[in-house]
Write a structure and sequence with these properties.
The complex is a heterodimer of chains A (701) and B (158).
Chain A: H1 2-30, H2 34-63, H3 70-75, H4 82-87, H5 93-115, H6 123-143, E1 150-153, E2 163-166, H7 178-184, H8 196-210, H9 212-224, H10 230-261, H11 271-296, H12 300-322, H13 338-361, H14 377-409, H15 418-438, H16 449-472, H17 478-509, H18 513-523, H19 525-549, E3 552-559, E4 563-566, E5 569-581, E6 587-597, E7 600-605, E8 608-611, E9 620-623, E10 625-628, E11 632-641, E12 648-657, H20 660-677, H21 685-700
Antiparallel strand pairs in A: 1-2, 3-12, 4-5, 5-6, 6-7, 6-8, 8-9, 10-11, 11-12
Helix pairs in contact in A: 1-2, 1-6, 2-5, 2-6, 5-6, 5-8, 6-9, 8-10, 9-10, 9-12, 10-11, 10-20, 11-12, 11-14, 12-13, 14-15, 15-17, 16-17, 17-18, 17-19, 18-19, 19-20
Chain B: H1 2-24, H2 34-41, H3 60-74, H4 79-90, H5 101-131, H6 146-157
Helix pairs in contact in B: 2-3
Classes of the chains: A alpha+beta (701), B mainly alpha (158).
Chain lengths: 701, 158
């Protein structure tokens, strides 16, 4: 029953999405019919409701163990805890596509509800583009990756063809034995059985899906000809929201990799990671350059390219990671969703680029202001955009461009890995941090170099003092000190500018520091939220430099009671408890070690290897144990052990200095983004004046 | 005395004939640590699993390859010789940057060339802006000015 409910709800969502897209465009553009436009709006809302029913049906099916549904059978089993039954919804291709479509439908409905009145002229076009995208994803579900397919038994078929998979009951089919289905159910991929999986994919999907709204508004502006900065203002907050989720998704993905993948790092420059990083790079460039258009009416064409490029990167990344392109550059031809996704990406990008060039050729994307100085905020933002785009090119080339080009044109299979990325990207990141340090103190229009120099004196002094501290505490590597210096300057500029704002307010309003800080964040959330984001990025940068340049590692085999020494620590192997069986059926081999420093036991560490006997393929996980402090992480992996008497075991140990700053910096960055994106009611000047007048009248009375 | 000379000559001949055989015996393998193996394995990618370095790949095939690296180190091969051997057998996909000079140059310089072009475009844009003097005749009519339209939108929304 749940399968039928889910299937029909999804099918009707597909119909309503197509209907909504068609009538919105026809009603606004050709028929000029308010009734049709409103019907399109209602179709968008109904699509979200139907997708909620669809996703709800699948979630309930997983929770209630309906193993006849092939997806439920593939991602769960009777031993799985309830928590993982929730996360199993996005544990494989079909379910995650349904969840993705649901989020997209939800975003569309929220956008319709929030922006319909304020953006009446753009909304019908925006609804058209949003619903077309939603319809495409639902189409993928219905025709290529149906999560509501069920197992059937057709007794009249030859033995090897008796079990079939179909959405609707085939003629002469019977329902399979539920006990046999439960016994053979596969369960969730072991790598996904981690708490991070409850948050990381939804955050990433929300980030990806969120970019549909800025894209739809940009397309709406191009299609309707309403090319004022209106679309930009309304989409800025949506872009920030999408960016926030994408950032959270990337950070949580890094944390998941650090905890689960067992290689002592958080970012491996893997194509799947990079596919999520690419839209983040373009989206960040857009968030900066959008300010130039808002303040100066410049870079209109460029901003269009950036926002459409962000969406295009989302779709390309989805195509690349879901079609199997990253495993082999030819595998997308074999994957069922590879070709349609590629076609959608290609067609949507071509249409968008055509619309931009068409409007540009008509002079409708002309800049409203002339450039006045090389040393201005707009020129530094342009440079910032160049660096972001260069990073995009470097990451895209390393992940997809070079492997595809070499295989297609040179018939050679190559991998561009850490070696390539660590050669190409550091100078670009360094350039970004330098710009982060200089751009906030520049002015729109013209910046006097002397004034900029004066403003930089305190941050530069603080940076030098910090570097001296680093030097005195043992950092003697010139490259590391240079890198720390660049990053610290950006952070100090952000902090000093915030303190200057605080002092200015305190002088004028005689407030307490806390009240002034609150006032800064509420009166100018974009600026001061932005500074907090920069500060968070600085903290992340310090963590990245420390953990990359000063990581120590060793691998040694120890007998029980033996110890190894690394970085001033002693690690003693105490015992191994093998064959421990967990609630969900996994078999755990757990080592117990003592971490000692200066003769004192700091912690008992229990790294382990989990084996999932019921899972085919990748069925072993290496779970690290870590002793975390702000100074470093002492990270231990159980690599191997003697199966017979467990007397000797091999451990891989990493010391990752400052790595926890990455997570703390991430939290600061998220808080800053929330402040910058927080909705603020802005009343029209006329209303504000009226309120002031009535307030004065009351006082006078 | 001549018999003694003959015996000494025979002994010398035996020694001379034996010495090369003794010299050809393999030296005892030097002890190789896991860290030495991992340092090289970290620079090689698993030829089977995509984008996973050999030092962390948990598959049996990669365990065998790590053992192979250990044996090569024991035989006295250098890091570069081992990497070259893997590249010869599995191709450039086993290293993080291709060893082949053309592919290597193509891989490393292409993003810089493309970024350089981007920078040139940006510079061109900045120069064009700087040269541009806003002609009043070219400026947008008030009814299409962004600011005006935004104000209008805000008023309508309010």
């Amino acid at each position: 029953m749940l399968a039928e409910i889910g299937l029909f709800a999804t099918f009707f969502a597909f119909l309503t999405a197509i209907y909504g897209a068609a009538v919105s465009l026809y009603g606004e553009r050709f028929a000029r019919s308010e009734a049709l436009v409103l019907s399109g709006r209602n179709a968008a809302l109904l699509t979200a409701v139907l997708l909620t029913v669809g996703v709800g049906a699948l979630q309930i099916a997983i929770l209630t163990q309906q193993y006849q549904i092939a997806y439920v059978w593939a991602v769960s089993n009777p031993q799985m805890p309830t928590f993982f039954r929730f996360t199993a919804l996005w544990g494989s291709q079909a379910g995650s596509l349904l969840f993705w479509s649901f989020l997209m439908g939800l975003f569309t409905a929220i956008c319709v509800l929030l922006n319909w009145r304020g953006q009446r002229r753009l909304m019908p076009y925006a609804v058209t583009f949003m619903l077309l995208t939603v319809a495409f994803f639902i189409g993928l579900l219905l025709f290529f990756e149906n999560p509501f397919d069920r197992w059937w038994v057709i007794p009249s078929n030859p033995v090897e063809q008796q079990v079939v998979r179909a959405a609707l009951m085939p003629a002469g089919a019977l329902e399979p034995d539920p006990i046999a289905l439960a016994q053979t159910a596969q369960g969730l991929n072991p790598l996904l059985r981690h708490f991070g999986m409850a948050i990381h994919p939804p955050m990433l999907y929300l980030g990806f899906v969120g970019f549909i709204i800025p894209f739809a508004f940009a397309m709406a502006a191009l299609a309707s000809g309403d090319l004022s900065t209106n679309w930009l203002k309304i989409t800025r907050r949506w872009t920030l929201v999408a960016w926030l989720f994408l950032t959270l998704g990337l950070l949580l993905g890094g944390r998941w990799a650090y905890d689960v993948l067992g290689w002592g790092g958080y970012w491996g420059w893997d194509p799947v990671e990079n596919a999520a990083f690419l839209p983040w790079l373009v989206g960040t460039a857009f968030l900066h350059s959008a300010m130039i258009q808002e303040k100066r009416g410049m870079l209109k064409t460029w901003n269009m390219f950036l926002i459409i490029g962000t969406f295009s990167a989302v779709i390309f990344g989805t195509f690349a990671t879901r079609s199997g392109l990253v495993d082999s550059v030819h595998s997308f031809a074999r994957s069922p969703i590879g070709f349609p996704m590629f076609a959608f990406w290609f067609i949507s990008t071509i249409i968008a680029v055509y619309l931009i060039l068409w409007r540009r050729s008509r002079g409708e994307l002309r800049d409203e202001n002339a450039f006045t100085s090389v040393f201005s905020r707009e020129s530094l933002f342009v440079l910032n955009n160049v660096v972001f785009v260069a990073l995009f090119i470097a990451v895209f080339w390393g992940s997809f461009g070079a492997p595809i080009a070499s295989e297609l044109f040179l018939n050679t299979d190559i991998t561009l890995g850490q070696d390539y990325f660590m050669r190409v990207t550091p100078p670009l990141f360094a350039a970004l941090y330098i710009l982060m340090g200089v751009a906030p103190i520049s002015a729109w229009g013209v910046t006097a170099l002397s004034s900029m120099g004066r403003t930089l004196v305190i941050p530069v002094g603080l940076t030098l003092a910090s570097l001296l501290l680093f030097f005195l505490t043992g950092t003697r590597d010139a490259l590391a000190l240079f890198a720390y210096g660049i990053v610290l300057l950006a952070g100090w500029v952000a902090l000093v500018e915030t303190v200057r704002g605080l002092q200015a307010r305190q002088r004028v309003h005689k407030e307490s520091p806390l009240s002034s800080l609150r006032a800064l964040y509420t009166r100018n959330p974009r600026r001061y939220g932005g500074y907090l984001i920069h500060f968070g990025v600085t903290v992340i940068g310090l963590g990245v430099i420390g953990s990359t340049l000063f990581q120590q590692e060793t691998q040694q085999t120890l007998s029980a009671g033996q110890s190894l020494q690394i970085g001033g620590y002693t690690l003693r192997y105490d015992a191994l408890f093998n064959g421990q069986i967990a609630e969900d059926g996994r078999v755990m081999d757990i080592a117990q070690l003592s971490l000692i420093r200066d003769g004192q036991t700091l912690a008992t560490l229990r790294p382990r290897r989990d084996f999932f006997p019921q899972t085919e393929g990748m069925n072993t996980m290496t779970i690290a144990a870590a002793h975390s402090t702000l100074e470093n992480d002492f990270y231990v992996l159980l690599v191997d052990w003697n199966e017979i008497n467990a007397n000797a075991a091999t451990f891989k140990v990493y010391i990752n200095p400052l790595i926890n700053l990455i997570w703390w910096g991430g939290i600061i960055l998220i808080i800053g983004t929330l402040i910058a994106a927080w909705p603020r009611e802005i009343l029209p000047a006329r209303v504000r004046q009226e309120m002031q007048v009535s307030g004065l009248a009351r006082k006078g009375a | 005395m001549p018999r003694l000379i003959v015996r000494l000559l025979l002994l010398l001949a035996v020694i001379l004939s034996v010495q090369p055989a003794w010299a050809q015996q393999d030296p005892p393998p030097r002890p190789v640590t896991d860290d030495e193996v991992n340092a090289i394995a970290n620079k090689l990618y698993c030829p089977v699993c995509e984008n996973i370095t050999l030092d962390v790949c948990p598959t049996t095939a990669c365990m065998d390859w790590r053992m192979e690296i250990r044996l090569m180190l024991e035989q006295g091969m250098s890091e570069q010789q081992i990497i070259d051997d893997f590249v010869r057998r599995f191709g450039d996909r086993v290293v993080g940057t291709p060893q082949d000079p053309t592919l290597r140059a193509l891989s490393l310089y292409t993003p810089w060339i493309l970024s350089g072009l981007g920078l040139l475009v940006a510079l061109g844009l900045v120069i064009r802006w700087r040269m541009k003097r806003l002609d009043p005749a070219e400026s947008l009519p008030p009814q299409t000015s962004s600011r005006y339209r935004d104000q209008l939108e805000q008023d309508l929304a309010g």
